[in-house]
Write a structure and sequence with these properties.
Radius of gyration: 20 Å
CATH topology: TIM Barrel
Helix content: 40-55%
Mean pLDDT: 98
Largest sheet: 8 strands, parallel, barrel
Low-confidence stretches: none
Shape: globular
Structural class: alpha/beta
Strand order of the largest sheet: 1-2-3-4-5-6-8-9
Number of helices: 12
Strand content: 5-15%
Number of domains: 1
CATH architecture: Alpha-Beta Barrel
Length: 327
């Protein structure tokens, strides 16, 4: 079973001031056998590889106000015609915009070309939704002219140009076609990204951080809101990592296994859930963190585990909880 902390940096707590080999040895002493992060440090990657530890990268996709600034038409439009607002740090981007799609592929190629990584996990690979809450807002997007034109070209369905009228049609009589097309935008880009990664680094894994919703949660919002069709994505992705942050989502640790089972059953692929160690929205006790570890590791459908974040698990008590299960 893969046991990987997410967010390694050489300046974190006990790693600061150590050489790359000592940093790797410390991770190994906690039972880690893979790591997310550190891939821009060639000496760290070399030390990890010498120890048999794969190094994985994350790649943020449809997110960031930089896109809104550089390509204003990438900012999603809501049902009443207003622009999507940033939700704290989160600024969702329209996944169907051609310049965004091509720009991201260029950035991804630079990442996998320069760094000797063993895999890359696609993050924010969805239509906009800031989901980390028990009952998160689930906005319907994007009813701008460009998106409606792309939808019409692909499906032959002409929606009114006015966002309110368009959304009435596309969330009503043509809801299935609209949902399928939005899912296809995500799946098609993932297909291109996976082909790119495998062309540059044939042995690298392609992973995807998926929203931790089961197929029927929130009236099918996994497809209907964020456009993640796990069955279709499973044709291109090696590993799915549902972001089962149980405290953020107001769930008991047992929920972690339920989401993992649903993801594995639907995608047919390996599942490495990513659990939270961070104290958000309230303190996560070491005991509760340990229960999350147990739920993820005890699920037969899980053959890996990622902890979000390494920094969040660095307290002595959480390190002890981790080591007691991973060594």
């Amino acid at each position: 079973m893969i046991r990987a902390p997410y967010g390694f940096r050489g300046d974190l707590g006990p790693f600061a001031g150590r050489g790359p080999r000592d940093q790797v040895d410390l991770l190994l002493s906690w039972g880690c056998n893979a790591v997310f992060g550190g891939y821009d440090d060639t000496e760290f990657v070399a030390a990890a590889h010498d120890a048999g530890m794969p190094v994985y990268a994350e790649f943020g996709c449809f997110v960031g106000e930089r896109w809104w600034k550089d390509i204003p038409a990438s900012r999603p439009v809501l049902t009443e015609g207003s622009l999507l607002e940033a939700d704290g740090w989160y600024a969702g981007v329209n996944p169907s915009h051609p310049e965004v799609r091509s720009g991201l592929l260029e950035e991804l190629e630079r990442l996998v070309s320069r760094s000797p990584i063993d895999g890359v996990w696609l993050d924010f690979i969805r239509w906009p939704c800031h989901w980390e809450a028990p009952d998160p807002p689930r906005p319907a997007t994007s009813f701008d002219a460009g998106t409606l034109e792309r939808f019409a070209a692909a499906t032959g369905i002409q929606a009114p140009s006015e966002p309110g009228q368009a959304s009435e049609l596309l969330l009503g009589a043509e809801r299935n076609a609209w949902t399928d097309w939005r899912c296809q935008q995500i799946t098609d880009w993932v297909r291109e990204a996976a082909q790119l990664v495998r062309r540059v680094r044939p042995e690298a894994l392609v992973g995807l951080f998926s929203i931790p919703w089961r197929q029927d949660d929130f009236d099918g919002a996994l497809k209907g809101v964020v456009g993640q069709d796990l069955a279709a994505l499973g044709k291109h992705v090696d590993v799915f990592s549902p972001m089962v942050y149980h405290l953020m989502c107001g769930q008991d640790p047992e929920w972690i296994a339920e989401v993992v089972r649903d993801a594995q059953r639907t995608s047919g692929k390996r599942v490495w859930p990513i659990i939270q160690s961070v104290d958000k929205p309230t303190d996560l006790s070491p005991k509760a963190y340990g229960k999350a570890l147990d739920a993820a590791m005890g699920c037969d459908e899980s053959d890996g585990l990622i902890v979000f974040t390494l920094e969040g698990m660095l307290s002595p008590t959480k390190v002890a909880e981790t080591r007691s299960r991973w060594t």
